[in-house]
């Protein structure tokens, strides 16, 4: 049985918190610039309605919040640190990646968009770029990623994608080869850590396009 959701409409024919999708849909159908989001609890929805849509845009608000005990197990992110992420429009599609200061979200580097890429390739390149950035700057910061796949690829020194090489993504695969070469030729002491999304929210480098 599907879990009940509550829907906030900030901009629509009628604003408010609604307890069914059908009712919410009536408020946003044929309304230009409608702003709405689904939440897993009435309390969260009511709190969100008091705020702004922009504060929730791009965030996953449909997950059940962890208990205080569960949150304690994850602890808090380490600062200062570097966070990386990738975004891909389609699979394959236009892909880009970036790195930011985890605490301030200040963008430190960005690459792309690249044609005919995948999110996993972007996450891999972002991690290697992050490693190179930290080494070049002589910064002993942790490096966060929310991709277990990319983390395993970096650990093994190889981007194990099944994406075929084509004339459209040749530039991207050239970068992959450079990244694999860097991993082979360089030592690093950077700790690559998993960003615990369900406890801390979206990774700071997230592009906010979900």
From TrEMBL:
<keyword id="KW-0378">Hydrolase</keyword>
<feature type="binding site">
    <location>
        <position position="146"/>
    </location>
    <ligand>
        <name>Mg(2+) 2</name>
    </ligand>
</feature>
<dbReference type="GO" id="GO:0003676">
    <property type="term" value="F:nucleic acid binding"/>
</dbReference>
<dbReference type="InterPro" id="IPR009027">
    <property type="entry name" value="Ribosomal_bL9/RNase_H1_N"/>
</dbReference>
<comment type="similarity">
    <text>Belongs to the RNase H family.</text>
</comment>
<keyword id="KW-0460">Magnesium</keyword>
<dbReference type="InterPro" id="IPR002156">
    <property type="entry name" value="RNaseH_domain"/>
</dbReference>
<keyword id="KW-0464">Manganese</keyword>
<dbReference type="Pfam" id="PF00075">
    <property type="entry name" value="RNase_H"/>
</dbReference>
<dbReference type="InterPro" id="IPR011320">
    <property type="entry name" value="RNase_H1_N"/>
</dbReference>
<dbReference type="InterPro" id="IPR012337">
    <property type="entry name" value="RNaseH-like_sf"/>
</dbReference>
<dbReference type="InterPro" id="IPR036397">
    <property type="entry name" value="RNaseH_sf"/>
</dbReference>
<feature type="binding site">
    <location>
        <position position="85"/>
    </location>
    <ligand>
        <name>Mg(2+) 1</name>
    </ligand>
</feature>
<feature type="domain" description="RNase H type-1">
    <location>
        <begin position="76"/>
        <end position="210"/>
    </location>
</feature>
<comment type="function">
    <text>Endonuclease that specifically degrades the RNA of RNA-DNA hybrids.</text>
</comment>
<feature type="binding site">
    <location>
        <position position="206"/>
    </location>
    <ligand>
        <name>Mg(2+) 1</name>
    </ligand>
</feature>
<dbReference type="Pfam" id="PF01693">
    <property type="entry name" value="Cauli_VI"/>
</dbReference>
<keyword id="KW-0479">Metal-binding</keyword>
<protein>
    <recommendedName>
        <fullName>Ribonuclease H</fullName>
        <ecNumber>3.1.26.4</ecNumber>
    </recommendedName>
</protein>
<feature type="binding site">
    <location>
        <position position="123"/>
    </location>
    <ligand>
        <name>Mg(2+) 2</name>
    </ligand>
</feature>
<dbReference type="InterPro" id="IPR037056">
    <property type="entry name" value="RNase_H1_N_sf"/>
</dbReference>
<dbReference type="GO" id="GO:0046872">
    <property type="term" value="F:metal ion binding"/>
</dbReference>
<keyword id="KW-0963">Cytoplasm</keyword>
<keyword id="KW-0540">Nuclease</keyword>
<dbReference type="InterPro" id="IPR017290">
    <property type="entry name" value="RNase_H_bac"/>
</dbReference>
<keyword id="KW-0255">Endonuclease</keyword>
<dbReference type="GO" id="GO:0004523">
    <property type="term" value="F:RNA-DNA hybrid ribonuclease activity"/>
</dbReference>
<dbReference type="GO" id="GO:0005737">
    <property type="term" value="C:cytoplasm"/>
</dbReference>
């Amino acid at each position: 049985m599907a879990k009940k959701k509550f829907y906030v409409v900030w901009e629509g024919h009628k604003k408010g918190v609604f307890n069914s999708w059908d009712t919410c849909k009536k408020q946003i159908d044929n309304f230009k610039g409608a702003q709405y989001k689904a939440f897993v609890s009435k309390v969260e929805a009511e709190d969100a309605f008091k705020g702004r849509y922009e504060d929730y845009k791009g965030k996953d608000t449909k997950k059940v919040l962890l208990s205080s005990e569960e949150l304690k197990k994850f602890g808090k992110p380490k600062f200062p640190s570097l966070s990386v992420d990738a975004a891909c429009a389609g699979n394959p599609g236009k892909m880009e990646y970036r790195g930011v200061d985890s605490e301030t979200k200040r963008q430190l580097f960005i690459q792309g968009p690249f044609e005919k890429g995948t999110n996993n390739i972007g996450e891999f390149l972002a991690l290697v770029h992050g490693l190179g950035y930290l080494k070049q700057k002589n910064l002993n910061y942790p490096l966060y990623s929310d991709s277990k796949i990319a983390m395993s690829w970096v650990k093994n020194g190889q981007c194990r994608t099944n994406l075929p090489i084509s004339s459209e993504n040749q530039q991207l695969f050239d970068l992959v080869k450079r990244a694999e070469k860097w991993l082979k030729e360089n030592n690093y002491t950077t700790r690559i850590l998993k960003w615990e999304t369900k406890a801390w929210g979206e990774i700071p480098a997230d592009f906010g396009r979900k």
